[in-house]
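Components:
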Amino acid sequence: MQAMDTDQDAAMLHVGAALLHRQITNVFTRWGMPQEAADTAARVMVETDLSGVDSHGIGMLPYYQQLFSEGRLDPRAMPQVLRDEGPTALLDARQGIGHVAAVAAMRLAIDKALQGGVGIVGVTGSNHYGAAGWYARMAAERQLLALSFTNSPTPFLVPVFGRDRALGTNPIAFAAPTADPQRPVLLDMATTAVAYGKIPIARRAGVPVPPGWALDQEGQPETDSTVAHEARRLAPLGGTRKQGGHKGYGLALMVEILCATLTGARVSEGHTGHFFIVIDPARFLGAEAFRQELDELLSRMRGIAPIDPAQPVLVPGDPEHDAILRRGREGIPLVPVLVEEIRRVCAEAGAPFLLDTAGAGAAP
Amino acid sequence: MQAMDTDQDAAMLHVGAALLHRQITNVFTRWGMPQEAADTAARVMVETDLSGVDSHGIGMLPYYQQLFSEGRLDPRAMPQVLRDEGPTALLDARQGIGHVAAVAAMRLAIDKALQGGVGIVGVTGSNHYGAAGWYARMAAERQLLALSFTNSPTPFLVPVFGRDRALGTNPIAFAAPTADPQRPVLLDMATTAVAYGKIPIARRAGVPVPPGWALDQEGQPETDSTVAHEARRLAPLGGTRKQGGHKGYGLALMVEILCATLTGARVSEGHTGHFFIVIDPARFLGAEAFRQELDELLSRMRGIAPIDPAQPVLVPGDPEHDAILRRGREGIPLVPVLVEEIRRVCAEAGAPFLLDTAGAGAAP
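Structure:
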């Protein structure tokens, strides 16, 4: 995932976070989701948009609506603890929206880590949970390190040497607390080279996709964006075998094993699983010394001589941090197509559409 | 890391595992390493060679000799437990060889996982520990899942947008037990696109390096192997920013934070740290059900239609498994240059050189 830098487009509607939150909870509660659960899921989504990760916030609402209408997402389901012993637990999301189960799981993992140094919590029977990084950040805000993984049931990734899709974009997120609580290290990455959404964007723009992103129907590298769009096949991070594609495939398989296999989430039935590992730095170097050492490491990274003086070396989480500041002031930009899709979702849910231009243009 | 497929080269000396083990322990004990520690380190190295990962077995002996002669590796040092509480512990390798401290740390993590579901153990003040995957496999042999990380103090990786090296090749290994105890899932990967050793190999062969491997002095992609060899700069896994290089950089930074920052291993002084996470599947889906589900997942991967019928889709660990079978029969192949380097190491240590052709050609 990558923070977008398209906020200045005049065609965009800029919406304040509070209004967007209200719009989402309006839809979710009409589906029958309890108010508290709707607030939780909406908070994750809006904060994801605030941090610039447009692909995983409100942009997912039409997809959730589709899951709901097909009976694959139960808005009333509340997560259930299947096992809970010492540092580990397993939750069943019972086909609810992923965000609610994932927040419950991460809260439990954080409590365990604060009490016993480590918390490892899996979630089975879930749905899309938004941005993997949001949950890792939750732990960093409590001065903990965290890993957050989810499988994604839609196959896009073609294993090295293969012709066919077999795994989702299966992301990995990692967060670590720094001296600035608002600015954790935050890595959030698909294990494919890019998210699938970038292929149709290139096709609509009539430009080729860079080598290493996509494959054709035969599993061969493809840069023609029309062919790539039809093939719906993504290369693993790294691209070809020679360039390290077996590593991206291996990471995607690791995520699948932790999130789906280990939690018992049956991917063949469209289920999703999540997996969280939370670690208290107080058990190792010590919380304060760790933050100091980390700040020194990050300063060293940011201080590396850049190729282009206008583009300094970044630390994972820097683009998201910048987006939060900018969008907190300017609002969250929504492309016209998305606004219309939200209007349709509202109509189908019988929820009021709140994003009319006049109301939405206001400051957050 | 990648299992080599060069075993048939007639110029190679094929050495049995037992003899290679004796050769290594002979050197280590002459340095003053206690017999048991020497046996441990030699076992890790020889089994790494058996599994085809030539870059991290006996091939590292000349480097260890250099560290020893410079006073950076203390062969007498025994690891010390600095902290040990519940699921976590921190060990100090006290500048000993990495293998000995890493085996102690992984044993402790395994014990913790078998008792309490999870073991997370860090190591500070260490040296090179060989192949990250060897330790992850240790846990898989006990029916546990494991992650194994190490930082490497020699900077090769250039962060995206930068000109200069700032991180090592910082590997990530993951293992999971399958129904066949000899054949775990085993991912073991540098977070650069390739290990540095592949650059001088290309230079000596007079061939360019593939795009995505190396950078020039200015941090720009470089395929001329002579220029790349002089620049000593590796691209992160993914290559350029557009192709996902920020992900490889992010993973390398994560490894640095877990292994060096969190354990307090000061990289500026050439120290190395390791980090191990071990998880008992019995705490989640259950040990037996997990293995069954995993075997189903792996069958699905291996069953994907291949591009080339002669090259089926693999699962991480398959090349290593094949190498173990082959090299168990045929011995471990050593290139002539390495044999001469080992001869020199033996001479400097005052240890007998055991790899004369006659003795070495025998079956393992």
